[in-house]
Amino acid sequence: MSQESPDENRPKTIRGIDPDLYDRALALSRQTGKTVGQVINDALSNLLNALDSTADKVQEVGRAFVEGVQEGRGELTVISNVEEIEVTREELASLGRQVVFRSVKRLVLGEDVDRETFEKYVNSIVQVEELVVRNKSLPKLTVLQRCRFVKRITN
């Protein structure tokens, strides 16, 4: 059982509620057997969750746009649509710029890819089914900061 504080049960007044919206909430509460407060709480919760989700998607689109611009200017190299690839420290350094790994089924970061190399040369890892981090001294949380839509990370 949860203990409610005395303030939780006090009525809350919200000014400026549209009368038509209130009437619709009242009708819905009668249909569902819920209180008007429960209906309003559900509606606000759903709205706020949708807005949070939308903000995340907008941020993701913004990131992809910036990556596209950087790629167009030659600041990034994109490696994409590959079944499996293993990269070494030397291979990353030989490019001389950051890399985006996108749509790779299995990406293996070699044992010699240390934290410094990873942070300097790997911009992002997107839509990878399995990411293998062979260097145990490369923290997974450091790697995860550059990952989006990665299904599995292993050693």
TrEMBL record:
It comes from the Archaea. This is Uncharacterized protein.
